[in-house]
Specification:
Layout (H helix, E strand, L loop, with lengths): L6 H22 L6 H14 L3 E5 L2 H11 L7 E4 L6 H8 L3 E4 L11 H7 L4 E5 L10 H11 L2 E5 L7 E2 L2 E2 L6 E5 L13 E5 L2 H11 L3 E3 L2 E2 L10 H10 L3 H19 L19 E4 L3 H10 L29 H9 E4 L7 H17 L8
Helix pairs in contact: 1-8, 2-8, 3-4, 3-7, 9-12, 10-12
Bound molecules: pyridoxal-5'-phosphate (PLP).
Pyridoxal-5'-phosphate binds next to helix 3 and helix 4.
């Protein structure tokens, strides 16, 4: 079976270094708020070209605490995409605010800036674009829309650390950006982890306070916070991996280029946007009869994944918003057609060829209408 992702390969390539870093933390006896977290925050901020990085327990907390730090709360609206992982909307709801969805661009599957602008109400406080699958969102447009209306831009950069957006590092181009170090992400820890990036020292301080139970000084709680720290072991692992992130992204782009060549002639398969800035956290094609194609690939020993089968406005959790099928046709069509193929920096030519052959066979079996238009 060719899996979506085999995390053991990357570990094998860095094993001596990572083992030593983890052991050093175990021997130090310092597991929370230690020197690795501090050093990683500095290294991450430098890498991304942001003034501040704050380590957190997850990307979900990154989004949640970014919004909290901006003062988003009950009665506020936050505009975002319905075609993303649930955490994007969940973070808005966790603040007591209301997610207001706007449709995605039919080509890029990223929040459409015009649709987002049209969804802004007098109660809107922020826009949350998502750099979906590692493809940077059009940050210049979002920043322009936000500036004109006095809104904040919170980037959901869980899938695109290392991408360039609006001439800067994705995650550091809006007001504040949230990163995830979930193991499968472009920069993955060996457990949960996340961070925010921002140039605004007040926002960084507030996220620092919120992650530590609302206290800047221990046991003196200025507001209701949460417990959301990045731990020392994860920070030590991330410090080993961060220097390799750019080479891993180049390797992902090379895998994507080989996939493009191998898949170019398969009828009915629409390839991901050929944007040179794409970092290919996922290599996601679109095919009609998607579930049948996925089943045919599985039969041939190729694992695939569907990110995401149900757009957020049609999830039961957001039923109370009263949005019916047909509200966001681009997101709904994407949810029916997307199929992510195995990708990692370590994927071999042989594996790429096997996936391509299996897809060709799967497609020949299925009656296709082209969705490449
Ligand atoms: C992974 C992910 C998150 C959440 O990150 P966690 O670290 O798992 O909490 C948020 N948004 C998107 C788009 C993601 O892919």
């Amino acid at each position: 079976m060719i899996p979506m992702l085999d995390l053991r390969r990357q570990y094998a390539s860095l094993k001596p270094e990572i083992d030593a870093a983890v052991l050093a933390v175990l021997e130090s006896g310092h597991f929370i708020d230690g020197p690795n977290v501090k050093a990683f925050e500095e290294e991450l901020a430098r890498y991304a070209g942001a003034r501040h990085a704050v380590g957190l327990n997850s990307g979900t907390d990154g989004l949640h605490l970014a919004l909290r730090a901006l003062g988003v709360g009950p009665g506020d609206d936050v505009v975002t995409t319905p075609f993303t992982f649930i955490a994007t909307a969940e973070a808005i709801a966790m603040c007591g605010a209301t997610p207001v969805f706007a449709d995605v661009d039919p080509q890029t599957l990223i929040l459409d800036p015009d649709a987002a602008a049209a969804a802004v109400t007098p109660r809107t406080r922020a826009i949350v674009p998502v750099h979906l699958y590692g493809l940077p969102a059009p940050m210049d447009r979002f920043n322009e829309i936000a500036l004109a209306r006095g809104l904040a831009v919170v980037e959901d950069c869980a899938q695109a650390l290392g991408a360039v957006a609006g001439g800067r590092c994705a995650g550091a181009t809006g007001t504040i950006g949230a990163l995830s170090f979930f193991p499968s992400k472009n920069l993955g820890a060996y457990g949960d982890g996340g961070a925010i990036l921002t140039d605004d020292p007040a926002l960084a301080d507030r996220v620092r306070r919120l992650r530590a139970h609302g206290a800047a000084v221990k046991y003196h709680h200025e507001e209701v916070g949460v417990n959301s720290r990045l731990d020392e072991i994860q920070a030590a692992i991330l410090r080993c991996k961060l220097p390799h992130l750019d080479e891993w992204i180049v390797a992902r782009q090379s895998v994507a280029a080989r996939y493009r060549r191998a898949l170019a002639d398969i009828d009915g398969v629409a390839l991901p946007p050929a944007d040179p800035l794409h970092t290919y956290h996922q290599f996601t094609i679109r095919v009609p009869a998607r579930d049948a194609v996925a089943a045919a690939l599985r039969e041939q020993g190729v694992q695939t994944a569907v990110y995401y089968p149900v757009p957020l406005h049609l999830q039961r959790a957001y039923q109370h918003l009263g949005l019916r099928e047909g509200t966001f046709p681009n997101a709904e069509r994407a949810a029916a057609e997307v199929l992510s193929l195995p990708i990692s920096p370590e994927l071999s030519d042989e594996e790429i060829a096997t996936v391509a052959r299996a897809l060709e066979r799967a497609c020949v079996r299925e009656p296709f209408v082209s969705c490449a238009s």
